[in-house]
Design brief:
- The chain is mostly helical and about 150 residues long.
- It has two domains: about 80 residues, no CATH class; about 70 residues, Arc Repressor Mutant, subunit A, CATH 1.10.10.
- It has a three-stranded antiparallel β-sheet with strand order 1-3-2.
- Helix 1 runs antiparallel to helix 3 and helix 3 runs antiparallel to helix 4.
- It starts with 5 loop residues before the first helix and ends in a 17-residue tail after the last strand.
């Protein structure tokens, strides 16, 4: 999930007849992958969180669990942005079941790392970001929404 886009994950992981035998042994992984492919990111992240302690027990997987979780979450955030030219932070917050303040910090980090080409539109002296506007080639970049959202 961390390194494939949704189409690759579906074809190489979920629909692969050779890999299905392994998925039958770990149905929660299959369920998480299906949710990821269907863009139900909160379901995916919830399933992975429930089994986090199991992953730490695996001697081969345990050193990589935190990195994988971070990459999967970032991948989900990036893919959640993809179809939109603009999206409200509150919408993403409910989609990822994360408080707006935490989510805005993650999004700023992704923007700074160049993983998301977007800008956060906020009013000065307001502690909540109002809208997220991604730059889509050929779209109007002058679009702005003045809004004040209180926490």
């Amino acid at each position: 999930m961390a390194f494939f886009d949704r189409d690759d994950l579906k074809s190489r992981f979920l629909e692969n007849s050779e890999f299905k035998n392994y998925l039958e042994l770990e149905p929660h992984i299959r369920e998480a992958a299906q949710a990821f492919v269907s863009a139900h990111y909160s379901v995916t992240l919830g399933i992975l969180e429930r089994y986090r302690s199991d992953f730490f027990v695996d001697i081969f997987l345990s050193p990589h669990v935190e990195i994988l979780y971070k990459e999967i979450r970032q991948k989900a955030l990036v893919q959640a942005f993809f179809p939109y030219s603009s999206i409200e932070l509150s919408t993403l917050s409910s989609l990822f079941m994360t408080p707006s303040r935490e989510l805005s910090t993650e999004i700023v980090q992704l923007i700074e790392e160049g993983k998301i080409k977007a800008r956060l539109d906020s009013q000065k002296n307001v502690k909540c970001f109002c809208k997220i506007v991604s730059h889509v080639p050929g779209s109007r970049s002058a679009t702005r929404w003045p809004a004040v959202v209180s926490l």
